[in-house]
Amino acid sequence: MYSEIVPFLEKNNTxxxxxxxxxxxxxIMAIYNQGQRAFGENRIQExxxxxxxxxxEIQWHFIGHLQTNKVxxxxxxxxxxxxxxxxxxxxxxxxQARKHHRTIQCLLQFxxxxxxxxxxxxxxxxxxxxTNEAFAQMDHITIAGVMGMATFTNSEVQVRNEFARLxxxxxxxxxxxxxxxxxxxxxxxxxxxxxxxxVEEGSTMVRIGSLIFGARN
Length: 217
Ligand SMILES: *Cc1c(COP(=O)(O)O)cnc(C)c1O
What we know:
alpha/beta, binds pyridoxal-5'-phosphate
């Protein structure tokens, strides 16, 4: 329930991204009217339609796997892309953001789960991205932090370890590459089933869908 989650997150200085994927505009407006402004979507087409139809005050977060050729559809309005997993994608985000004279916040998505299906960087590839000459030239993106999804499992120990690993990646990157960049501050981790563990492990942003909007079909 939205009204129960919010006080817990506020107490822990954690931002809520309300994940509205598959949910109709009326459901989004019900939460918007309770004060929520940050919403997350994982499909480009759906995000574009909702952005056109809903209040412009909404801050849209893209949390799904993003294909390079689709960046152009959201570059004029998307606030933060949580799923950056390649230099090529980052270059395209930078290029499209420049066209719109804006800066897009980006999070580096790390693969922390044991499951094969989850996308993301490892530390090696993140370092090679951040030390690439092309990265140094990008002036229309801000690397605002990291994102990760834990394994879908009942093992609290495993989930906790995976979140702790993401936090340690964040710390390493901050010390090595972002010591002078206060904008590098977000750790996007935690969903309906594991957000309390994520907050305990240092999450600054949780992405919660079904707990707020009900189960998806
Ligand atoms: C769907 C989704 C969520 C929210 O999942 P719930 O379990 O409904 O809270 C969070 N993060 C990502 C990347 C998602 O795709």
